[in-house]
Amino acid sequence: MENQAHNTVGASPCEAELQELMEQIDIMVSNKKLDWERKMRALETRLDLRDRELANAQTCLDQKGQEVGLLRQKLDSLEKCNLAMTQNYEGQLQTLKDQFSKLTNNFEKLRLHQMKQNKFQRQESPHLKEEIPFELTNLNQKLEEFRAKSREWDKQEILYQTHLVSVDAQQKILSEKCNQFQKQAQSYQTQLNGKNHCTEDSSSEIPRLICEPDPNCETNERDEFIIEKLKSAVSEIALSRNKLQDENQKLLQELKMYQRQCQVMEAGLSEVKSELQSRDDLLRIIEMERLQLHRELLKTGECQNVQENKKRHESSYSLAINESEKKRKELFSVTPDQPNQEKELSKIRSQLYQEEEHHSSEQERMRNEISDLTEELHQKEITIATIMKKAAFLERQLKMELEIKEKMLAKQQVSDMRYKAVRTENTHLKGMMGDLDPARYMNMNFTNREHSRHTSINKLEYENERLRNDLAKLHANGKSAWTNQNTYEEMGQYAYESQIKT
């Protein structure tokens, strides 16, 4: 009995010490748990703040994307205006061709009539006298019509110039907006880089906290099981993130191909603009040719007036000759021996001879003028034929480029469809990742948030890169369109001066 009492007395202080140790261990475990929970809450608050900032940045990028879409719509409207201007110029060119063919036909008729008139100078007929003023009235009416049309063309030219000025102003505004967007995109990129550094720091802290060994909780199997679950979930999320990154790389490659196709299309549009500028120059040259033909027609009208005056003089000369013959006969019959009358007759004869010489010299001068006009008309016809050939060549080239543009648009639509399909797959994968069992993964909230944060960062980087590429492309296209326009204006001016010299 004494031994048993002694054993109980010896065992009771050991049990008390063990209980104290167990209580201390429980207190330490509870303190560690509280510290760990506090750190987790702090990390969750930081992640929430980062998510909010990323959401704000995403909204800003969406707004910029909408603005870029508006700019693209403006560019499409400008392209439509340019196409309408090309069609209008083609219609005007066709009308000018028709009018010039009519003018050439009328001039040929007038030249044939002049040749007939030169052959039959002495054979006067009332039919010709009636036909000449009728043709002159027709020519005068046509000249009035051409004058009215030239006024209308001048008005249209003024309208086109004002439209081009407005288009240039819009282009400058778009270039300024593109510069602003580039600056904002750079600022967003710097912010995203800073946020990426912060998120990397936080992601490095999370596994450190997870992997911190607790010497007082080695026997806690529940915590180890949760840690294993977290590690497996992190590995799965890393695999899915790698897959999404691969898909994003593919999308970036397709986007680059699409941008190259857009650049090719924009180069085609710049070539079409240059062709429009060359056609404008051709229209100006044709307008100058029309004015020269108008002047030549005025000269031919003056020549016809001179010929009519000449015919009147001839008729008056014939009447004077008849009267002089009658007077001579009367004088010979009345006083054949008077010397004064003979002197008068000799004077009259000399006057008639001088008038006949003057008449012949006038006829020769008119013939020379008509031959010069025919040579000039032949040269003008040759130049117009060359201009028509150039216009036909430009039309064929424009049709070929329009076909190429249609093919590129079809390829662009196919690439857009592929991009939409990949985007729907990404959204589906994100939905599948979001549909995980919350009861099974209660302690994986921070890993899911980390994954969503990484995916949102990747998405923001992708969108930012796309916006920067689009803005750089717009800026480069604006500069190239401006330089092309200046060069084509200089080329048109040089062609116009060379045509005037020839």
Automatic annotation (TrEMBL):
InterPro entries tied to this protein: CEP63/Deup1_N (IPR031470)
Subcellular location(s) per record: Cytoplasm
Coiled-coil annotated spans: 86-156, 227-268, 356-383
Keywords annotated in UniProt: Coiled coil, Cytoplasm
Domain of life: Eukaryota
Ranges of residues in domain CEP63/Deup1 N-terminal: 12-280
Keyword Coiled coil belongs to the record: yes
GO BP term, pick one: de novo centriole assembly involved in multi-ciliated epithelial cell differentiation
Gene Ontology cellular-component terms listed: centriole; cytoplasm; deuterosome
Pfam families xrefs: CEP63
Protein known as: Deuterosome assembly protein 1
